Every structure is written in structure tokens, then in C-alpha cells.
Amino acid sequence: LADSGAVGPTGLWEARVTTQIVRNVVARLGMSAEVFAYAKRQPGAKALPRLIEMVNASLPEIFLAVHCNASSNPHAQGAQVYYPRWPLPGSARSKSLAGILLSRLPNNATPWSRVLPASFYVLRKVRALARVLVEVDFISNPQVEQVMRSAVWLDDVAGRLAEGLAAFLITNWR
């Protein structure tokens, strides 16, 4: 799931970053792009309930939402990965997936980088066995925004997410 969301200080749209990352993850893992394609055609909050219906109808084992974070602090940087707050089913597996993904993402050792519980709508409503929302970095940081423009960086992040998903599957679904 890619989000249209935030805009960086020099005009880079979150959707441009997250769409490319999700496309690359999908390609690397050979996954179905049906739900991703719907998200691209129908961006915004109004489409979210329908998107979640489509996701749930596909009976996913894992759900990954990809976003760029934003802050009023222009120095904020680092990845954050959210999992559903207890006592939602799948919270323990989701927390494990969140930790695996954060450990692989670039810029994962800053004061802002962490794994956190959250009550985001998408984490509450998607019925996957493990579900996370990944904030790959802060698009509001001018230096990070410039890095996000790089196809090499986008592909690297996608590769790291794909590796993390594969590692999680190997350890949790044998």
C-alpha cells in the first residue's frame, strides 16, 4: 500500500517515493500487484475502506504499508515501524516483523528510529496474520529528501524490505 501523503521541503511527494519502493518490493518478491494497482488508481482516505476490503478478501498472511514520515523538526531522520497495539490478533507476530524490518532498513540507529505500537486505522482493520506500517525515513528532512530522489536509494530500501519479509517468513512459516 503506497500513500499520497506528505511533501518534502523541495516538493518531493511521498507518493513518488512509496510507489517506487512498493513496485520494487512487489517485483523482487514476485507478488501480486492487484491491490497495489488499486491504491495507485484510488489514492486518498476515501479509498481506504475499499482498499482494506480488497486486502482482506485476498486473505493475506502479511500486510505492509509503506510511508514517508514527516516532522516539524527538519533534523528528524530514521525509520520507524509500527505494529498493531495489543490485544489485536497478530500483534506479537506483527511486532516481530516490525523488528526484523527495522533492523534491515538504512538509517535505523537514529534517536527517531524505533518499533512502536499504534492504533492506525489500517493496522486495526486489515486481517493479516502480521501487519506493519513502515515509515522509511523523514521526507521533511531536506538531506533525507534529496537521498529519497535517488533510484539507487529507492531500490536499496525495497531490497531491504523484501529481505526482511523473506526472513520473517522463513522464521515464522516453515
Can you describe this structure?
- The chain is α/β, with parallel strands linked by helices and 174 residues long.
- The protein is 47% helix and 16% strand.
- It has helices at 14-29, 34-41, 48-57, 91-104, 121-125, 142-148, 151-172; strands at residues 62-69, 80-84, 114-118, 130-138.
- The protein has a four-stranded mixed β-sheet.
- α4 links the parallel β2 (80-84) and β3 (114-118).
- α1 (14-29) packs across α7 (151-172) and α4 (91-104) packs across α7.
- It is globular, with a radius of gyration of 15 Å.
- The relative contact order is 0.22.
- The model has no long low-confidence stretch (mean pLDDT 88).
Please trace the helix and strand order, writing H or E for each element. HHHEEHEHEHH
| Approximate strand percentage | 15-25%
Number of helices, where a helix is a run of at least 4 consecutive DSSP H or I residues: 7
Give Rg in angstroms. 15 Å
Strand order of the largest sheet: 1-4-2-3
Shape: globular
Helicity level:
40-55%
Distance between the termini: 26 Å
The helix/strand class is alpha/beta
Provide the residue-averaged pLDDT.
Answer: 88
Largest sheet: 4 strands, mixed
What is the number of E strands?
4
